[in-house]
């Protein structure tokens, strides 16, 4: 009978502790679940912003490459037309001196044109690269800011 009384006393003594333990455990699980859910939401949002930045950069690059392609095509067409015009002019020369002068002026014009076009293409390339890097740079800054917050705290 003493043993039964002791068991009952032990049971009565541990029941409040068990209830407290169960309540505390439930609260900890709920807190951990909420933190995990928030972390997943933050990660998802962060990843989506990174993907959006890459899409923006890709769009800028695609448009830039399209414009560079159009410029190259236009320059090629212009060069072909200049070459055709020079070929026709060669057929009309009367002296070797006229031929040398024609060739010299054609070569100078083509060289000047090529240098000017190269400068324009270089300028456009730098502009496209800078524009394409802006969204990526913004995400890098956001990442650095996000990573530095725990360090500063």
Automatic annotation (TrEMBL):
**Pfam families for this protein:** Phasin_2
Q: Which InterPro entries match?
A: Phasin, Phasin_subfam-1
Q: Which residues form the Phasin domain?
A: 42-139
Q: Know the name of this protein?
A: Phasin domain-containing protein
């Amino acid at each position: 009978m003493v043993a039964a009384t002791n068991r009952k006393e032990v049971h009565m003594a541990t029941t409040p502790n068990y209830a407290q333990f169960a309540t505390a455990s439930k609260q900890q699980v709920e807190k951990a679940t909420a933190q995990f859910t928030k972390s997943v939401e933050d990660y998802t949002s962060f990843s989506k912003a990174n993907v959006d930045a890459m899409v923006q950069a890709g769009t800028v690059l695609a448009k830039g490459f399209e414009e560079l392609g159009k410029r190259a095509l236009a320059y090629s067409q212009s060069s072909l037309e200049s070459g055709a015009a020079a070929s026709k002019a060669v057929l009309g020369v009367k002296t070797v001196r006229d031929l040398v002068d024609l060739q010299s002026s054609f070569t100078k014009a083509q060289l000047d044109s090529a240098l000017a076009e190269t400068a324009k293409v270089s300028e456009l390339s730098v502009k496209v690269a800078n524009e394409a890097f802006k969204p990526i740079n913004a995400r890098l800054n956001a990442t650095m800011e996000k990573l530095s917050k725990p360090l500063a705290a």
